[in-house]
Amino acid sequence: MIGFYTLFYKEMLRFWKVAFQTVLAPIITALLYLLIFSHVLSRHVQAYPGVPYIAFLVPGLVMMSMLQNAFANSSSSLIQSKITGNIVFVLLAPLSYLIFFSSYLLASIVRGLVVGLGVFLGTLAFYPNILILHPLWITAFAFLASGVLGALGVIAGMWAEKFDQLAAFQNFIIMPLTFLSGVFYSIHTLPPFWIQVSRFNPVFYMIDGFRYGFFGVSDVSPDVSLIVVLSSFLALSVICLILLKRGYRLRH
């Protein structure tokens, strides 16, 4: 397991050494969203009965921050290593595909959780009385959702050959999926057509299940959300391992 610990440690140092950019900046961005949206819409929007809009926003912003940073960690690490050429030193080491994948994945999960925790602690300054009814649900969705985006980041990092391609992946896939997943609204406030469209977005289930852990209410059953998120995680993990075994855009 020395190879796993070494690669994981390297990935941890990679984002922690520039924590001002990789941790603090996303926290500030999320708090700005909370400040602006809660100030503008708090008197006009009520997603759940008895839940203030500012409280409704908190889980969505925490999860959105975790997802974006988990994806950014693995994808940016791989594309930087490919462009600079130092990926060869990782590939030459006697590491299995599972260890390679697990190291990048776990580091992405850690970064997502660190940013998410930072966002949550920051939101307490705006709304200190937020409910936490089901902490186990919160923990499960936080780990699994960060894992899904971490695995997707590995796929994007292998696929992309330059930063423009990675930016396109993030801007045209990750950003729309997160912003159109119920971060700022309940899907039941949408027209029927868009409600059905939202149900095909896996990020919606991540945020909805995570929000259930706070308030005990959700747009769909948390069991359904957990099944969708767990299935997505397993499917993406299998795809990653297959691509790594084939050396997709890494060895060839």
Structure write-up:
The protein has 252 residues and is mainly α. It has one domain (2-246). Helix content is 76%, strand content 0%. The radius of gyration is 18 Å and the shape is globular. The two termini are 27 Å apart.
Beta content: under 5%
**Amino-to-carboxy terminus distance:** 27 Å
Total DSSP E strands? 0
So what's the oligomer here? Answer: single chain
Summarize the helices and strands and which ones pair or pack:
Layout: H1 2-16, H2 19-41, H3 53-84, H4 87-92, H5 97-123, H6 135-159, H7 163-179, H8 192-198, H9 202-215, H10 222-246
Helix pairs in contact: 1-5, 2-3, 2-5, 3-5, 3-6, 3-7, 3-9, 5-6, 6-9, 6-10, 9-10
Write a brief structural summary:
With 252 residues, this protein is an all-alpha fold. It has helices at 2-16, 19-41, 53-84, 87-92, 97-123, 135-159, 163-179, 192-198, 202-215, 222-246. Helix content is 76%, strand content 0%.
Features:
mainly alpha; 0% strand; 252 residues
